[in-house]
Every structure is written in structure tokens, then in C-alpha cells.
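task queued by scheduler; priority normal; single chain, no ligands, no partner chains; default sampling; output format set to C-alpha cells
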Amino acid sequence: MSRAKPPPPPSTPDEIEQQFYEALQSADIEALMAVWSDDDDIVCVHPGGPRVVGAVAIRAAFESIFANGAIRARPDKVRRLQTLNCAVHSVLERIDIPTDEGLQTAWVVATNVYVKSGTRWAMAAHHASPGSPREVQDIVEAGSTIH
């Protein structure tokens, strides 16, 4: 009897990000914590909330959130900046909220920071701010030519 091999661990910032949002959508605290770096100074800021530092505090914050159920968050309009050992993703999160009046949509503007240690990428920071429908459109300044 052969056993199926477990999937390989995420090896890119995009794969870590996908695992993070899947964990939010399923309220899976173990999967969510698996994306974080082992560094003592990892940090998470929820919309309108204080800075939460360290794995124990981050876990407690998400356990409190998950007590109300999963978060129907999905990344949208991801902007990426990556170097050899660091990646920064600016993400527009679409949050679907079931209400008595039907499904409502909320927007969150988030920055996810990933660091590479050896061959492993991991989340070092997640900073989320309340958004509004206007964030759906990016403001991009066109480059100017100096003559």
C-alpha cells in the first residue's frame, strides 16, 4: 500500500500568499500560522487595530477572529516588488460578508511582506487598512520626460 506524498512546501512568495488567503477562507489556524516566519519580530496589523507582534500574539488575534467564522477574503490587484530575499505585495483584498440583506463587499488595502531564509519563504508582516470602493481603481502616475 503506497501513501500519497504530501505536497511540497510553498516555495515562492505567491504560494505563501495563496496559502495565507486559503487559511483565512477556511479559518484554519494551523495553516495560517504555517505561513509565518519563525522570527520573533513578525508583525500583523488588522484594519483599525493595534500592532500585534510575535507568533503567540498573532495566533491569539486570529483565533479570536476565527471564533466568528472564516474570513471570505481574496486578494485582488496584487502589486509585487521582489529582491533576492524579500518580497513586498501590495494587495487589494475583497471581503465578502454575508448579511440579512445578502452578500456585501468590503475592501481592505493590505501590505504583505515575505522574507527568504535559506530556501524557505515566509510571511514577516501583514498590515491591513480599511478600504473603500475607490481603492478598486489604482492611481498610477505616468512617468514624465525631462528635456
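post-processing summary
- The chain is about 20% helix and 40% strand.
- The chain has a mean pLDDT of 88.
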